[in-house]
Structure prediction request, 124 residues.
Amino acid sequence: MTPDKIAHFRERLLEEIERLNSQMDDLGKRDLTRPGHVEVTYPESGSNSEDDNAAEVTEYADELSIEARISSELRDAQDALKALDAGNYGVCKYCKKEIDEKRLEARPSSSSCINCKKILTQEM
Prediction:
């Protein structure tokens, strides 16, 4: 990979990390015991009706799911940045072949080539 491409992907990854950190901050207070996570608080409407309780549980479950997804994406982006610094960015962690640049453009934090990803997700 050329120095220009490395600089390009570094910038993309830093932007992605910043965006994901901003989303985490919007979700809640940072969890100091688990880096890369936030404390998702249970929403209290103040009512004890079954409808309100169901809405609270649904909202809480949704926020937990969102937090888990953002946390995973953040970890992937940070790992990709570490790989870039180590000089092995853009190499599939399964087959060790180069990841197509079009895939990296679409998802700079990709750690697997399209073929290995399809096998892992059973799309073949």
